[in-house]
Amino acid sequence: MTDTDLCFTSAVELRSLIATKQLSPVELMDAVLARAEALQPTLNVICTSTFDAARDAAKASAERVARGEPLGPLEGLPVTIKDLTMTKGVRTMAGSWVYAERVPQEDAPLVERLRDAGAISIGKTTVPEAGWIGCGDSPLTGSTHNPWRHGFNAGGSSSGAAACAAAGIGPLHQGSDGAGSIRMPAAFCGIYGLKPSFGRVPIAPMSNNEFNSHAGPMTRTVADAALMLGAMAGPDDRDFTSLEGAPADYLAELDKPIAGLRVAFSPDLGYLPVDAEVAEPVLHAVEAFRELGCEVEQVGALWDDPIDTERCYWSTSMAGNMGPYVDTFGERMDPGLLACIEDGRRYSAVDLVQHRQKRLDFARTVQDVFRRYDLLLTPSLSVAAFPVGRIIPEHWPQHDWDWLRWAGFSYPFNQGWVPAASCPCGFTADGRPVGLQIVAGRFQDLRVLQASRAFEEARPWAAHRPPV
Description:
Layout: H1 3-7, H2 11-19, H3 25-43, E1 46-49, H4 51-67, E2 78-82, H5 109-116, E3 120-125, E4 137-138, E5 142-143, E6 145-146, E7 149-153, H6 159-167, E8 172-177, H7 183-189, E9 192-195, E10 214-219, H8 222-232, E11 262-265, H9 276-291, E12 295-298, H10 307-322, H11 326-329, H12 335-344, H13 349-372, E13 375-379, H14 412-415, E14 420-427, E15 433-439, H15 445-458
Parallel strand pairs: 2-3, 2-8, 11-12, 11-13
Antiparallel strand pairs: 1-3, 4-5, 6-7, 8-10, 9-10, 9-14, 13-15, 14-15
């Protein structure tokens, strides 16, 4: 096996090779770090590296394997951590000059759990400033490029995580998703990204954005996501919204057949424009579910467009969280973020409370869909990747900050707290990836994983590698 092949090998296979002493964690780490160092100048995916610490941890892991000690489920596997996630002793800059020198004093719960499971962090992955946008441009760390086409967007805000996964810089990558920030870059970069049910993976410090943020895995295969989610999930007192009880054994139950499931397919949710180059591969992908024995029904509008509430939440959150820094850092902040902050300041507390009620009503409407259907299929996004430096594709209506419309398939499921995944389902004519979104009812994370796995086997994608 070449070093490149090793870097594209799944975590599930790698852990078996390590456990049976066919592969040393040191050999694996050397290959992944060499690839990371080679591709960083082209892709710009890791903003703070921890390569030396990772090499030391790989040596310690190799010694545990040699001694025959009990091994963690992620023993010796490289992982990346998103730069919005707190890491003890390692800079967490959030892509902003505001936090350029921030070094947290403790790890987020998911970081602790990944380490306790044996995973080894190689560094922090790039994000747009404060995660404010679905693109990968930061005034502090620069632009992250799509491995499938240089000069094009990798998506956001889990930009570096998605690009690392697509480019074979290790098998496991942590993302977070407040309005699509796992699924958008997963779709743009042609990987698998899962936003679990709200609270499934604890977030601490808790994100102050109206209880919309979810943390989850970003990988090349569904099995790897199942493995990683099992390590991250579970309750934690530092996040009072975290779900009680141990997570399911997602990996062990992954291959349950999905024949007979009631599946709704909405090509546009009744109100969203979709580029033809995206709509066609998605429509073809839906046929796989019929072939798998599901009862597929095409549906139109399932609810009213929630974008006004999302705009309120998004801009007021940015105004409240980042607005206080404008006087000091405004000249070094993203101009689009500044426009978003200014827009957020026009809302009153009464406006926010009224939108909160709309959100609660909307969440119930989303959850009611899954009383009638087991799954909902949609495009992951209305568009494929577009050039870096833009926040909206050139052929779409322009705005100084409001990018939300092209991501309109994402944020309804943040507001509804339900699990949703983006699966690679094809390419545009010029080779940009397209994503299919698979959604299920709240707490049905395993169902989303099982449906994703069945689709992956029916329409394999992991063998496709970008030209980097």
